[in-house]
């Protein structure tokens, strides 16, 4: 097979070791990036599961960084309105979209409503999720399995499918996976499987969109104190939730949200197909 010559990206040059940066052509860029109005100024972001937990923290921080925000939520009106109020309080703009994203048409409508309202879309954050604890695979019904995949994975696929046509060069997609995708979870087998699927989807989509200038990355949180926890486990597990990680505590949503801002902004301009791991110190080599 004939070797393909590499395209020259810069003039060929050689210096004596260790080299002089000021004599390089072109010179490496070392000045810090600056963002007038915030890291996401002028951008429109669509965040699923944005009413509470990680999604709420991401939505508020995005707004503080200058983004117009649309959040999709299932039915928790009180939480959603509170999130909108918090965004308004920091001078942001927020649209609430109530929808069941386990249905493909709802995903399409959520994207179209956002684009029609704000005139475009720059950042998609796929974050909605659900889980049910089961001690045995025999206790996981087909109905539960399908609902978990429809909510946790199919919605990510559908949201992206309908959003990608509106995304331009410089846009970003950030998916929420989980530490369970890497180490598993004996009592959350179907949930962990969806999170593993999200990792594969993120890496594949990143390669598919890289030449269009659209970056795709993910965040894999460890234990985080959100409503999903108190609605999933018994009182004893809730009381000790997060104590098994090296930091011996669960994270807070506002400790996770900066990962999303980083991946959505030009700070992460050289990152695609990657996963960040805010998990309290657990080493998972992923």
UniProtKB/TrEMBL annotation:
Pfam families: adh_short_C2
Basic and acidic residues bias spans: 24-36
Region listing for Disordered, in residue ranges: 1-38
UniProt entry keywords in alphabetical sequence: Oxidoreductase
Protein family according to the UniProt entry: Belongs to the short-chain dehydrogenases/reductases (SDR) family.
Protein name as annotated: SDR family oxidoreductase
Lineage of source species: Bacteria, Pseudomonadati, Bacteroidota, Chitinophagia, Chitinophagales
């Amino acid at each position: 097979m004939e070797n393909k010559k590499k395209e020259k990206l810069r003039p060929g040059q050689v210096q004596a070791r260790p080299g002089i940066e000021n004599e390089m052509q072109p010179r490496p860029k070392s000045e810090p990036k600056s963002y007038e109005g915030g890291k996401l100024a002028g951008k429109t972001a669509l965040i699923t599961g944005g009413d509470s937990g990680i999604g709420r923290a991401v939505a508020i921080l995005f707004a503080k960084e200058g983004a117009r925000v649309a959040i999709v939520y299932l039915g928790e009106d009180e939480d959603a309105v509170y999130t909108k109020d918090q965004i308004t309080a920091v001078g942001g703009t927020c649209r609430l979209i109530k929808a069941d994203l386990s249905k493909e048409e709802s995903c399409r409508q959520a994207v179209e409503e956002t684009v029609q309202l704000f005139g475009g879309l720059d950042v998609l954050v796929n974050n909605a999720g659900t889980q049910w604890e089961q001690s045995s695979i025999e206790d996981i019904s087909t109905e539960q399995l399908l609902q978990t995949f429809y909510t946790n994975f199919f919605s990510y696929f559908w949201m992206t499918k309908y959003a990608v046509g509106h995304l331009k060069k410089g846009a970003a997609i950030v998916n929420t996976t989980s530490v369970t995708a890497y180490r598993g979870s004996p009592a959350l087998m179907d949930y962990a499987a969806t999170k593993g699927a999200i990792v594969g989807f993120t890496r594949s989509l990143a390669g598919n969109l890289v030449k269009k200038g659209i970056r795709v990355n993910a965040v894999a949180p460890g234990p985080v104190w959100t409503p999903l926890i108190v609605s999933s486990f018994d009182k004893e597990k809730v009381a000790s939730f997060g104590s098994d990680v090296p930091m011996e505590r669960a994270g807070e949503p506002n400790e996770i949200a900066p990962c999303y801002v980083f991946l959505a902004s030009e700070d992460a301009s050289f990152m695609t197909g990657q996963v960040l791991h805010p998990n309290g110190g657990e080493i998972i080599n992923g």
